[in-house]
Structures are given as structure tokens and as C-alpha cells.
Amino acid sequence: MQKIYIYVQQGNMAGIARKIANGADIDCIEKHSLQTPLICAVSSP
Question: What is the pLDDT of residues 5-41, one digit of tens each?
């Protein structure tokens, strides 16, 4: 699991912004859930 997913699950906006600024692939698909970071974020409680 990429670090951006951990930040998404934690709701860590600063961490997410930092990963995106450093070139994180926001269209990557997590192999277990088959979700992108955005889909993961909107489906998190």
C-alpha cells in the first residue's frame, strides 16, 4: 500500500498534499480494494 492511502485513511490532508506535490500518482489503484486514493477518501467514514 502506498503512503498516500495511509494518509487518506487517516484524513491527513497535509500528508496527502505533500505526496501530491512530490509527484504521487493519484490515479494509482490499490491492489486489494481496487480503488484510487480519491475513491478511498470519499468512501472512508
Answer: 999 999 999 999 999 999 999 999 999 889 999 998 8
C-alpha cell at 15: 500528508
Question: Alpha carbon of 11 to those of 29, 45: distances in Å?
Answer: 18, 10
Domain that holds residue 39: 3-43
What is the distance between the alpha carbons of residues 45 and 41, in angstroms, rounded to a whole number? 9
Structural domains in the chain (count): 1
Q: Which residues contact 21 (CB under 8 A, 6 or more apart)?
A: none
pTM of the model: 0.79
